[in-house]
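Q: Protein A?
A:
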Amino acid sequence: MDLQGKIIAAMPERSGVSARSGQEWKVQSFVLETHDAYPKKMVFDVFGSDRLTRFNIQVGQEVMVSFDIDAHEYQGRWFNSIRAYDVRLVDPASIGVAGVQPATQTSVISDTPPAADPFPPQQSATEGSADDLPF
């Protein structure tokens, strides 16, 4: 899934050592806010020091985040996990453009008569309609 928005917060980086493999891991969480009429916020994680270095996410950047959603159970409760696998910078000037052109009003003066009404008025049942439908 993809979501575009502005990074409004970056949580401190967390790290540890895997109990299974003994390998060190790093993860950092970021908060993205969309530009919808009613903006939404999403917290997502970037897992791995290589991705953290490659993405180099900074507060205030406009980004497109590609992410996976998964859930896991812990002591009878379920928790969502939103993990980014790609983060791309977006040009801030493109916000709101997204393929929608603004409506423009134009005044057209023409010598041609208006086209015939594509939906002529309905005949009532008393006017001798050929079908027996009630509408």
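Q: Protein B?
A:
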Amino acid sequence: MIKKRFLLFSDDEFILGILILLTTVFIVAEGRWSRLHNSKAISADDSVHIYLDKSTGLDNLSQLLADSSLIESKEELKWAAGILGWKRFQKGHYLVSNPLSYDTFLSKLARGIQDPVSVTILPGRSKADIVSTVANRLKFDSLAFHQTIDDSVFLARQNLDQKDVVGRLFPNTYSVYWTISPEAFFERIINEFNKAVVHSHQRQFEQLNRSVDEIVTLASIVEWEARNSDEKRRISGLYWNRLNRGMRLQADPTVNFAVGERRRLLYEDYQVDHPYNTYLYRGLPPGPITNPDLRSIKAALYPEEHDYLYMVATPDGAHAFSKTFEEHKQKSAQWRKWLQEQYRIKRMKEHKEN
């Protein structure tokens, strides 16, 4: 016969055992809770930008974070994601600039709560340059953005003609989501332009009796011409004086646009038969030659009042202004003399080096 032996515990021993069990459970739970909500679980020495170009699974995300040195253990990340119930993570741009807990970080990616990116459009740029700059900062490629701003149907909805687009690519820094569409980003630019230019200066457009396209076209020439921003209103006033007198603008930047190069112009360049060559064709060119900044647009809207009709460059990068052609010829001769001296110095320097 086999006898069963029972180990009997006193009440104190039983209570002690329960306490030990509860303490163990608490320690394990507290450890897991601490790991899950550790405020420094996701961290790096410098800010790290994470780009998910599509919905991403846990395996790919953990590898990406490990490659970026944001986590020490892929297994622990997967454990945390399992506890939190996150399996898929939304496409987008996410910035890690401060240490984060698993809970905060994984929830952010799973819900697709993106961090915006900054896109800066500089003034005085060509359409191709701007397209490239924008595409390098956002998810869409340059071809997609180029097709958008060349789409006649889309432009018609914006009350725009293709020749006027570059003038509407308003210089500014835009804070947008990386996954924004080309159409939505262009609409954002147009809205910023309308707010800063059209709505803010509507009365002045009416007083000048000029369209937005005309003002932007003149502003684009001023943008290209003026190295010194303080001269913009004076240059604008000179161009308006010539237009109001029926004179040709004779603006060098329009010739640069016609020949497709921004360089010192040659005599034969002025003879290029092109609708943007204001040495051959009267009035404003058909459209803007670049994207003017707000100061250039204001210069076109609020020109300086004077009697200047001519200007020529000066050695300091500014301009010498004249009211008569005779005065202009004298100042032009001084400019040519200075240029010839610079060429002479350059040739002597090259000769010595050789």
